[in-house]
């Protein structure tokens, strides 16, 4: 049985709620000393297809709600969002690049790259479906040589299969969108699924963890 609780966050850069989910998870986890947290990239369109779901933007009422809701979420959390003019873009190259980086670099470096790609898409309005933009985005973190090398590796069979495996794993866990969190309590192998960037109050209650609310409190939480 695991001695520590664990949280696996399945995300895709194309998802604005994944952007908030990852940003908030990274904000809160600094207080969660006994929890293992992993960000795991997926292909969101594959999850939607596998679960027979639709993206909110494809349903008129959901799409209209989403645009308003994202603005409210930005105001509540203090996390900026500039809705991408390239939405939706094909983020398979981005997800594969993050698979390579996760396999090769430290957790801290990988997480910096995750946040950087989210910010490139959802703050800087860059089309992260383009390889050149992906390379340029992670170059300040990895250096130009590594960024180019890792981008080339995204065509490797092993990397393609890992993204497929991550996506299928999320579907098998019950995912129908992103972000999806699969959580195990310390001492138990039973997985518990939580969906959405607005589940942190419930997640922290479930795991008995501190939670300061959506707004950033500089005394106890950091971006």
TrEMBL record:
Annotated GO MF terms: glutathione peroxidase activity; glutathione transferase activity
Its EC number(s): 2.5.1.18
GO BP, sorted A to Z: glutathione metabolic process
Coiled coil: none
GO cellular component, one term: peroxisome
Keyword terms: Transferase
Catalyzed reaction equations: RX + glutathione = an S-substituted glutathione + a halide anion + H(+)
Active site (UniProt): 15
Family: Belongs to the GST superfamily. Kappa family.
Protein name: Glutathione S-transferase kappa
Protein species of origin: Linnemannia schmuckeri
Gene: GSTK1
């Amino acid at each position: 049985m695991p001695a520590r609780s664990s949280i696996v966050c399945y995300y895709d850069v194309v998802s604005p709620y994944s952007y908030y989910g990852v940003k908030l998870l990274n904000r809160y986890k600094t207080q969660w000393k006994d929890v293992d947290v992993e960000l795991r990239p997926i292909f969101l369109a594959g999850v939607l297809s596998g679960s027979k779901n639709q993206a909110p933007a494809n349903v008129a009422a959901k799409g209209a709600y989403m645009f308003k809701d994202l603005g409210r979420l930005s105001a509540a959390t203090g996390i900026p969002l500039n809705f991408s003019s390239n939405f939706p873009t094909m983020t398979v190259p981005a997800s594969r690049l993050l698979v390579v980086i996760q396999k090769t670099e430290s957790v801290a470096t990988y997480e910096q790259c995750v946040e950087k790609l989210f910010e490139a898409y959802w703050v800087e309005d860059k089309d992260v479906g383009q390889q050149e933009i992906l390379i340029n985005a992670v170059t300040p973190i990895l250096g130009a040589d590594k960024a180019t090398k890792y981008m080339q590796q995204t065509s490797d069979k092993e990397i393609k299969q890992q993204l497929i495996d991550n996506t299928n794993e999320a579907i098998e866990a019950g995912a129908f969108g992103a972000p999806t969190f699969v959580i195990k309590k310390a001492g138990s192998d039973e997985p518990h699924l939580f969906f959405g960037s607005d589940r942190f109050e419930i997640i922290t209650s479930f795991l008995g963890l501190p939670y300061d609310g959506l707004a950033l409190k500089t005394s106890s939480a950091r971006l």
